Amino acid sequence: MSYCSFDLQKEEARLLLQTALVATGKNFFKSAAGILAALEAFRPDEVSVAVAKAILMISVQDFDLALSFLDREALVKWPDSAMLKAFRGMALIRAGRKDDAVGCLTEAVQSNDKAAANLASGLLSDIGGNVK
């Protein structure tokens, strides 16, 4: 018997990632987790999958898990990702650690990633932090 090799094309991966984010937004957390697990298997080097996983963990209010994932896996693999730093700041805020969030949010604000900078700036404003 011959098996066909299956590969996930870039556009297919993007569509699945968007589907996982919509599922997260609609509180279909189990579906989102399954989609992200499959994406991670096919695209382990995509930072966008790590960002989506962090969003999912924050959405289910498992802030300790989100912080553990970000600190021990995602930011180890992508230490320069401003978006991961912004979501780390969000997880810290939601975990009640606003003072700890300022450093990573400030780094994200100062990055060249406009989306991450805008997210981090908004989060800093929400907690009364200084945007530099």
Q: Can you summarize this structure?
A:
This protein has 132 residues and is an all-alpha fold. Helices cover 73% and strands 0% of the residues.
Please describe what this structure looks like.
The chain has 132 residues and is an all-alpha fold. It has one domain: Tetratricopeptide repeat domain (Serine Threonine Protein Phosphatase 5, Tetratricopeptide repeat). It is 73% helix and 0% strand. It has seven helices and no strands. Helix 2 (29-42) runs antiparallel to helix 3 (47-59), helix 3 packs antiparallel against helix 4 and helix 6 runs antiparallel to helix 7. The chain is globular and about 45 Å long. The chain starts with 9 loop residues before the first helix and ends in a 6-residue tail after the last helix.
Unreliable stretches covering 5 or more consecutive residues: none
- Structural class from helices and strands? mainly alpha
CATH fold node name? Serine Threonine Protein Phosphatase 5, Tetratricopeptide repeat
Looking at this structure, what is the CATH superfamily? Tetratricopeptide repeat domain
CATH architecture: Alpha Horseshoe
Number of helices: 7
Look at the structure and give the CATH class.
Answer: Mainly Alpha
* Global outline: globular
**Nearest-angstrom radius of gyration?**
16 Å
Distance between the termini: 62 Å
Let me know the largest β-sheet. none
**Percent range of helical residues:** over 70%
| H and E string | HHHHHHH
Total domain units: 1
Percent strand equals under 5%
Question: Averaging pLDDT over every residue, what do you get?
Answer: 92
- The number of strands is 0
